[in-house]
Each structure stands twice: as structure tokens, then as C-alpha cells.
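[Solved] Which block belongs to which protein?

Original post:
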Amino acid sequence: MTALVRLRLDIGYDGSDFAGWARQPNQRTVQGVIEDALARMLRLDPPPMLTVAGRTDAGVHARGQVAHLVVPVAAYSAINGTMPRRLAGLLPPDVRVWRVSVAPEGFDARFSALSRRYVYRVCDNPFGVEPLRRHDVLWHPRPLDLQRMNEAARRLVGENDFAAYCRRREGATTIRELLRYEWARDDRDPHLVLATVEADAFCHSMVRALVGALLMVGDGRREVEWPARVLAARVRDSAVNVAPAHGLSLEEIRYPGDDGLARRAQETRRVRTLAASTFAAGAETPAALPRQETPQGGDRGGR
């Protein structure tokens, strides 16, 4: 039998010219570009398959993406220690593999992750975005009130059914634990606003829908309580505008210590459900209820 080794890759990319992460026929994708470069470098046919922590959509960027792959020990040993440098010569300039390491036992880039952290960048300068930042910053021509936005964001944090902010997929749960949602202005540019969104996992379009809802609160078009009411309804609301992809960047994937990797992967592979509940009068968000364990798929990725 061929001896195999599992490798962890730490990756960054400018998503502007990619049709997202996932390989697609006749489309330029991050996965396809990296897998093809790995196949050439390792002399493997067919190309090795990458498993990624978060499958970003078309136009979404990443600074802290993580993926793993399994390759023959012989192929890896032949170039051990030189993979990032070799890949730099094979990859286009809009994608980089910063680090390649042998993964600890039990590591799964997707299922072992504790959380994913995204940042969405918005400029509310009435004259527009600084030209060099136009590919990763959204221009919002109305002034934003961050105090209102943070008050609204606080009401969304916790474990809830985010069906109202997700594109449903057959058989997939929309229950997620939103760990952090904060808005702040950049210290160096008073017109640059950063939304930090962190969760154990994200469903399709969730981050951009959350950002779109809060932009409407920040510029006064919606009241502070509106995003929480949308969440409680658990139904996709056409009034929630999904923010454009180019302002979003995957910044960090957080993992447990080596001894907790396999256990975390096992915990993630189950569907979470919120038991039927009634809400007290005036309640704006559903309370997080105990998880019920049934088999599940993992994170669909951030958006």
C-alpha cells in the first residue's frame, strides 16, 4: 500500500477574478488553480483534492484560508521544505500558499474548525472609495451610525436559526452560533468602517446578508430592532439586501489544540436543531435551545 501524508495549507487570495473557491467546469476557481499547481509540482495525475475550511463565493477574498490534502509520502518527501517557494513560481499573482505543514493527527480543515472570522469593509465617504481599495471596500454613499449598528448587531449574537439570512440548501441546517458581530471605524481612516463577523460556521450568503441588513440600520432606513425581528421570523426576507462580495474577506480560521482536533471534527458532523419554542411577548430573538444530535454535513463556508 502507498504511504500517505496529510498536509495543511495556509492560503490567501484576491477573489476578484475567481468564480469562487469550489472547482467548477469551465470556470477559473481558487481550488482549481491551486490543485492544478500542486499536480504539476508533485507530478500527480489526477490532481490531489483540497478540503477547505470555508468555500468562499465569487469575488470574496481571503487572508487566512486553510485547506488540507492527502498525498503520497514519496511525492511530498521529494520536495519537503520547498513547497511554498515552488508554488509561488506556479501560481498566478492573485493567489498564494503561505505555509505548508504536516497536519496533526485528527486534523480536518473543514470539520475541525472552531470558528471562521470574516471582515467586511465599507467606506461611507460621500466622495467614494480610495481608488487603490476599490476591489476590497464597498462604497456606501450614506453616512453610517455605528452606535445604532452595534446595538442591532448585539441582538443577533448567539446560537439561533439564521434561515432569514441564509440561502437554503436541501437537507442543510441553518442553525449557527454567531460568536461576534461588531462594527468599528479604522483608526487611520475615519471613513473606513469594518464589520467583524465570527461564527462557528456560516451558511450560504449569511455574512453578506447580515452586513446588508445592518447597513440599512446604520443609514437610518430601518430601526435598530428590525434585524432581530427578521431573525426571529426564520424566513428569508426580501427586504434584506445581500451586500456585494468584493467587500468581504476571510481573515482567520480558529482550531482547537492538537488533542482536540478529532473530537471537534466529530462534534461538527451533526445537524443542530432548535426545538419548537414560544417567545415571551416583546422578545426579539429566539433563545438558543439544546442541540439535538443527528448526522450532518459541515460548514458551507462564509460568504
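(Second protein starts here: sequence line, then its C-alpha cells.)
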Amino acid sequence: MTTPVALTIAGSDSSGGAGIQADLKTFAALGVYGASAITALTAQNTRGVTGIHAVPAEFVTAQIDAVFSDLDVGAVKIGMVAQAASIDAIAAALSHWAPRHVVLDPVMVATSGDRLLASDAVKALRTRLIPLASVITPNLPEAAALLDAPVAANQAEIESQGHCLLALGCRAVLIKGGHGEGAESVDYLVDADNAIALAAPRLATKNTHGTGCSLSSAVAAGLARGEALEQAVRSAKAWISAAIGAADRFSVGHGHGPIHHFHKFY
């Protein structure tokens, strides 16, 4: 028997709702063994981020090497990378270990609005990490920021930005529509051949902390289990919608509370 394994390379959220903690909860909820390499510590809660302490780049490398030298990693999820030195370290390590699947969530801003990526690191994200990705998962503002473009306002603009992001070297783009408007939240999966719209009802809750981290981790979990990308994305979309729908079962914090990763179990 083989155990599916996924590695998350991301920042730690001290309140447990996003980052490494959300990624590991997602992996566990979806039947995948989770390993981690921490890029930064954040002092954070449901109201915002009050501090960021970056992990030295050489120690990020040490964590990644330790995992790959022992575990059979089926997929990697990359979240908060914090600084250019960490991006260089991650890119070098992944080029060396050549994982089968890399899901890159270009985390720039937290749900609370706090910036999580240094402005000088955006270029490194574009040029070093995006070309290594099987799929990148920006939301609408992140897609625009990566392209130095206005936020896409309709399907045609979203698909156009998806193709522009493909030109940066990744194999597929999942542009998340949670920041859009309308009765449905529509994500677009764009690759060289297709653009697929994936719709779900837009849910009225303020408890969305960790949604982006968890969706990309759910995609990585599906890939680690051997699913094709489209199926992994469809499964992740259904799971995250249910996790958001169950978020109000929790009463955690006084700001944007977490989604319910284990909604299937309690």
C-alpha cells in the first residue's frame, strides 16, 4: 500500500486558519499525508497580521531537502514565500528534486488586507517559481498584480489574463472568482487548449480566512492521490464550497473566522 504524500511550502499562521496550518488540515481532511517546510512565522489572528519573521533561506532549503530525501512526495503546494531569497531557495530545491506536481498559490495579501509578500519579491515569483508550476491559483487581484494589469471585470478579460499568465511558463492557471460579484463564484481553469468555468453559489459568510490556501492545498491533495488536474480542481472546488458553507458552525475569533476543514466529520 502506498500513502499519498503532499508537501506544503508556506508560512505559519499562529491563529491556525490559513497558511501551513490550513494546508495540513486540508491534506488530512482529504486523506493525504502532509509534510511541511515553513518559510515564515506570522503573528496573526482573524483580525490581521501583526508581525512576520522570515525563516532564513538556507533553512527553507534544509527543510525541503529533509522531506524529499525520505518521503515519496506526490505533489507540492507553495503558499506564502515572503521574500526573494526564499523564492530562490525554493526554486533551486524543486529544480533539484523535480516533483511530479507543483501547485503555486501566489499569496500576496491576507484576507485581512495585510501584505504578505515583499514588493521586490514579485519579480522573483514571476520568473523563478511560476515556470516550475503545474498550475498557479491566483485570485482576481493577484492575477492582475502578477501582470501589472487592472483587475479583470468579465469572463473574456479573465480568460485573457489566464493566457497571459500561461506565457510566464506554468502549465495551467486557476483564476479564483471569490473576489468577483454575482450570485455565483466562478473560477476559471485555463490551459493551452481550454478555458473551463467552474461555478458554485456565492455564500454569505465573513468566515473565509484561509480559503485560498485551502483550495490550492485541496488541488495538491487530488494530484497527490493521482487525479488528473481537471478532476483535482473540480473536487477541490466542491470541497472548499462545503467548507465555506460550514464555516458558521465555528465561533473563532472576532474578525474573518476560519473555514471548516473537517466539515465531513463534525
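Accepted answer:
You had them paired correctly. Confirming on the second one: The longest strand covers residues 33-45.
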